[in-house]
Protein: ABC transporter ATP-binding protein
Organism: Anaerocolumna cellulosilytica
Amino acid sequence: NTLLEIQNLNVHIEEKEILKSFNIKINQGEVHVIMGPNGAGKSTLGYTIMGHPKYEIKSGSIHFEGEDITEEKPDIRAKKGIFLSFQNPEELSGVTLENFIRTAKTAVSSKPVRIMAFKKELHKTMDNLGMDKQYGDRYLNVGFSGGEKKKAEILQMLMLEPKLAILDETDSGLDVDAVKIVSQGVKNFKDKKNSLLIITHNTKILEYLHVDYVHILLGGKLVKTGDASLIGQVNKNGYKEFFELV
Ligand code: ADP
Ligand code: MG
Ligand code: MG
C-alpha cells in the first residue's frame, strides 16, 4: 500500500535549486530516515511535502494515497493525513496550546470534536509525555524551552493521528530523559500502523523503532538508500564516502 510517492521532484527557493530529481516511496506502516549534512535540503523536503508556498516545485510530482497533491494547499494535505513537526516551532501569542490543537483537530477531522472527550485525551497524552496539564493553557510555544516546544510538537502529532508524520529534528535539543519520552511517544504513534519520515542526526530515537529505510541526502540529491545499518556507518565515518556518489 503506497502512501507517499515523490517522483523526479525539483524544488527551488528564491530561484535557487535545492532538491534535485528527488524520488522516494513510502508504504503504509514504514519508517524512513533521512540523514544528511547541514544545508542538504532535509527541511526543504519536509516543507515541500507539507506544501509550504515558499518552496516552488519546478517539476515532478507528489502523490498521497494515489492522489496527485503536488498543487494542493497545506490545509488539504493536513486533512488527507500528513503532519510536519517543525525543526524550529514558532511561538503564537494569543492562542493557547489546547485551543491550537483543538482547532487543528477539528480542521482535519471528519467528525465533530467533542470538547470533554478531547480534553480527556489531551490530558492523558500530555501525562504520557511528562507535560504538566497547565501547558495547555499557555500560549503556543511562548516561553517554552527548546525541549518543551519539541514535546508540544509530538503532542500535536499524537492528538491529530496523521497517516504520515514527518519529524524534522524533533529529537534535537532534548535532554536524555526528554529524548526517551519523545521516542516512546513516537513509538506509540508508529504502533498504530502509521508511517514516519524522520529527519535526524541522533540515533536514540531510532533505537525505539524498526527502521525500514535510510536515505542519504547530499546537496539536494538522494545519493544512497539502505537499511538501518547505514545509520551506524554515517555515525562512524561521516558523509565523506557518500560524496563520491553525487
Ligand atoms: P537542511 O535541513 O538539510 O539543513 P535546508 O532544507 O534547511 O537544509 O536548506 C537547504 C538549502 O536551502 C541551504 O543551502 C539553505 O541555505 C537554503 N535555504 C533554505 N531556506 C532558504 C530560504 N528561505 N531562502 C534561501 N535559501 C534557503
Ligand atoms: Mg539544518
Ligand atoms: Mg533542517
Summary: The first strand starts at residue 2 and ends at 13. The chain has one domain: 2-243. The CA atoms of residues 231 and 237 lie 10 Å apart.
